[in-house]
Structures are given as C-alpha cells and as structure tokens.
Design brief:
L-fuculose-1-phosphate Aldolase, eight-stranded mixed beta sheet
Length: 206
C-alpha cells in the first residue's frame, strides 16, 4: 500500500471516530454538521445529510486538490467553506462544523460581542480557543460565507491574534486545527464555555 493510500485510510477512520464521539456526547445531532480533512493531494469530507454518528469510511466524499469529487457519496454543501478555510490557514488540516446547542442559543439571545461570541470566562478557553468572531447569517452553502470567514482569518493574522474558530449566526461553529482530534477539542471547549455562560446567566437573580 502506498503512503498516500495509508494516509487516506487513517484520515477516513479518524473522521468517523471523531464524528461518532461528537454525536454520542451530544455535540452533534441528526444529520447536522460535517467534518473534513485536508490530504496532500486533496480532501475528504462527510457526505451531505450524513449523520456524524453513523459514518461509513468507504462512503466519505473524496475530492482532488481542485475540489472536484472523485469518489464516495455526494460531498457536503459546505465544501466551499472548508476549502476557503484551508486556503486561508496553511496550518489547518481538519475543519469541523456542528449546530452546537448552546452556541446557537447564544446567537439567538445575543452574543457577547461580534468579535468574541463568548466572553473569556475560563483560562482554558483563552488558551485553547481564543477569539471567535460572529459571521452574519447566510443560507447554508452560500459562497459569501467563505468570503466572510477568510476575511476574519486574514484580519486575525494581521492583528497578531490568529483565530481557529468562527460562529455562523443561527447555524453553529466552524473550527479548525492540525488534526481531527485537536479540532474536536477546540469545538468541545467552545461549546462547554457557551454552556457555562448560558447557565450562569439563567442563575442570576432577575
């Protein structure tokens, strides 16, 4: 087996492992959300309308370096966003998008600021997540989302504060990192911090 084939197989297994873990612990639900990995010669991404808890490695969508599908079930409609993130951040090797409950609730109730949807209420959040800007609502799959996210990534780099996540208004977070496992950790910390914020707000005397 070639090194490329081994890398493809490992990436497929890791996407499915991470998807099942997120689904089992309530970070993903129904057929909402998607995961992609950048390979040396293209991309893998979960199929459109796939449940992250029941992914089949053999059915993941395989795309070449230009984003043309060459194998698997039909790629998620958010492929263009994932590719814009990879193009804007050379260190990104995995992108995860979910419709995480508390983060979506924050966009309905009102985020902290447009530059930081969640306040830095824990040291671990500051270290592991950092700034998470709000991206105005667009329908899922709209190419304009990729433009907005790429602009935010570029602005973070220019300011010396690179970002590793954005919040899509009324849809959910998109996070990226060097591997599926590290991207999952960013997503978990982001959603748990949002959950803490929501709980604290509900507990305040009115």
């Amino acid at each position: 087996m070639s090194p490329e084939a081994r890398a493809d197989g490992r990436a497929r297994d890791e996407i499915c492992r991470v998807g099942a873990s997120l689904f089992a612990r309530g970070y993903a639900h129904a057929t909402a959300g998607n995961i992609s990995v950048r390979l040396d010669d293209g991309f893998l991404i979960t199929p459109t309308d796939a449940c992250l808890g029941a992914l089949d490695p053999a059915r993941l969508a395989r795309l070449d370096a230009q984003g043309q599908q060459i194998d698997g079930d039909r790629a998620s409609k958010t492929l263009s966003l994932h590719r814009r993130i990879y193009a804007a951040d050379a260190s990104a090797r995995c992108v995860i998008h979910t419709h995480s409950t508390h983060l979506v609730a924050l966009t309905l109730a009102g985020v902290w600021t447009d530059d930081d949807v969640v306040p830095p209420i824990t040291p671990y959040y500051v270290m592991k997540v950092g700034h998470v800007p709000l991206i105005p609502y667009h329908r899922p799959g709209d190419p304009a989302v990729g433009d907005a996210v790429a602009a935010r990534i570029a602005a973070g780099v220019a300011a010396g504060t690179p970002i590793r996540a954005v919040m899509l208004d009324r849809l959910g977070p998109s996070v990226w990192s060097e591997s599926p496992a590290s991207a999952m950790a960013v997503l978990e910390e982001l959603e748990e911090t949002a959950s803490c914020g929501c709980s604290a707000a509900a507990a305040r005397p009115r």
